[in-house]
Amino acid sequence: MTGKIRTTNTLQVYICSRSIYYMKQKTGLVCLILLMCIAFVDTRAQFIVDSLSTRLTQKNLPPEERVTTMALLARAKSITDIKSAMRIAEKALSLSRQLPDARYQALVYTHLVFLHFINEEMPLAHKASDSALWYADKTSDRRIKGFAWFRKGWLQDIQAFDHEAMATYLQALKYLEGTDAYIYQSFVYYNMAGTYAAWDDLVNEKKYALLALQTARQSGDADELASAYQAMATWYHYSYKKQPEKRALLDSALFYNKTGIQLFAEHGDHIIIQSTLGVIALNTADLYEEYFPAKYKDTAWHYLQIALNASLRTRQLSVLSACYAMMSDYEIAKGNYKKAEELLLTGISVFQSYAVDNPRSMAQFMEGLSKLYEKMGNPTAALKYYKQFYSQHQLLYDADKLAITNRLEAQYQSEKKEAALKTLRHTAALNRKLNYLYISLAIASIIALLFIVRFFQLRLKATLHQQKLLENENAAASLHARLKEEEAMRLQAEQQLLKERQERLQKELLAGSLQVEQKNELLQTLQKKIEENKNGGAVLKQINHIIDQDKRIDDTQASYKADFDNIHPEFFEKLKEKSSNTLSRLDLKHCSYISLGLTNKEIAQRLGVAPKSILMARYRIKLKLGLGKEDDLDEYIGRVK
């Protein structure tokens, strides 16, 4: 229709997928029930605030119930007085920290998610969601766990992260299904049905819409029933659009919409979310307008009036703008352009009286007026409103760009947090596995030790018994065996003595070779200085002669070093092999000193360097040998030796 300012079937989509929630308390040990959203405040909301405030005045109210009541009060006051709501929530959080059960902190943080969202503090809303999940993980209450995961999914949903929200909703259902938290389950199913409707997946949309209706009936909550009726009506409508030959689908859509409207007529005083009535009534009017002949216009107008009254009472701007648009369409169809103009201008006036920035609805109004004046033959007015339409459209475009930017930033932060949480979970899982492994090893070690002790006990007993028999049977054989044993021990002692003498000889030869090498370096330095000062005369020649004699003596000492290599030829080869032949001559010398058992200070004195240099040399040798930080270099060289 000309001048229509609403998008096609926009209100058929599940509005509760972007909605807010309320909680109410059952009797017993803090039975937490999901608070559905109150889009705008009416007298019922004030009644809830007064009731909760009165409850808090009770002096004997247990701290657990006080925390729950304060959380509910903060949620109820959030629409009219967000600052007061935040103060109450902070007090509830402070009190919850004094309670041993973590579910109360999880509950308060879950409400803070919504409060920060209302206060346009999305980073704080995400932080509160993370805290809610963290504390929910510390409690065994499956309802609180499900509620915390649901709130995270809701936060993702309102930011248009549909796939992430769907995965989170499924996680929430893992905790909720099998409990009596039907109102929680119904709302999760309702949101999932809405997401599948947006994805045009009729099979899953029907599945979750039916589950929403089933759990809503089990909960007995009128708000949930109204939402479930709207979900079922939406599925039948979408199904009829794809199969227009099946008229029964359209009849079923009308049936569920009318059932929802009748529910409001009978139990309106018990329904908190009054905005649902406006959606259902508008959808019903839309069905009559789109699929029924002109004689049903009065019926459509009837439901349109219901939707308009509900939207005015709840300040539901999207329904309000759609109602004025449909009314103006009716008047345009009749040729009553003046009446259509009055309706559109009235709608604009209502929007302006609310002092709410809504570029999308205002742009639609301006576009409708522009087209209407063009049809009336008033190009000046048409151009005027078209310019205003363009201006509002630009504001809407800028707002959309900002929303996209914020959404991308939120997605980045969310992915960053998910990666960090994944790492933490992986580390925690690994630590748990290690703990189990350590426990298993300890148990296995104890069992093995017991078996070994028992084995040796039995073996000792058998040996003693056998010795006794042998002593009784043949004393001479026993004496002979004892003599042989003593002989073996003597041979072993001699071998041990020989080994000790051999090791001592190795050390002496190694020490001598190192001293010779150190002396050679000194003599070479001295001889170099002599060569640089050849004019020194006879004394220098005599010194040079002495050095040559000393070198000849060193050749003899070199043979001793060869003897050391013959005694223990594998020492240097093993070190070179371990280091991939990266050890320098000085490194090997250092290792030799270590094998002799010299301290760092003694090695520094022999090499003529500072003790700090010895520490650095030891560090380099460890690296070249591929030793770890905890490995002891002295022990390693002792094993090689």
Set out the fold topology:
Layout (H helix, E strand, L loop, with lengths): L23 E3 L4 E3 L9 H14 L6 H15 L4 H15 L6 H16 L3 H15 L5 H17 L3 H15 L5 H17 L3 H18 L2 H21 L4 H21 L7 H17 L5 H18 L2 H18 L2 H17 L5 H18 L2 H95 L1 H58 L5 H30 L2 H9 L6 H11 L4 H8 L3 H15 L7 H8 L1
Antiparallel strand pairs: 1-2
Helix pairs in contact: 1-2, 2-3, 2-4, 3-4, 4-5, 4-6, 5-6, 6-7, 7-8, 8-9, 8-10, 9-10, 10-11, 10-12, 11-12, 12-13, 13-14, 14-15, 14-16, 15-16, 16-17, 17-18, 18-19, 18-21, 22-23
Brief account:
The protein is built from 24 helices and two strands. With 641 residues, the chain is mainly α. The radius of gyration is 45 Å and the shape is elongated.
3D structure, described in words:
This protein has helices at 43-56, 63-77, 82-96, 103-118, 122-136, 142-158, 162-176, 182-198, 202-219, 222-242, 247-267, 275-291, 297-314, 317-334, 337-353, 359-376, 379-473, 475-532, 538-567, 570-578, 585-595, 600-607, 611-625, 633-640, and strands spanning 24-26, 31-33. The chain has 641 residues and is mainly α. A two-stranded antiparallel ribbon has the order 1-2. A hairpin with a 4-residue loop joins strand 1 and strand 2 (31-33). The longest helix has 95 residues, at 379-473. The radius of gyration is 45 Å and the shape is elongated. Mean pLDDT is 78; it is low at 1-44 and 562-567.
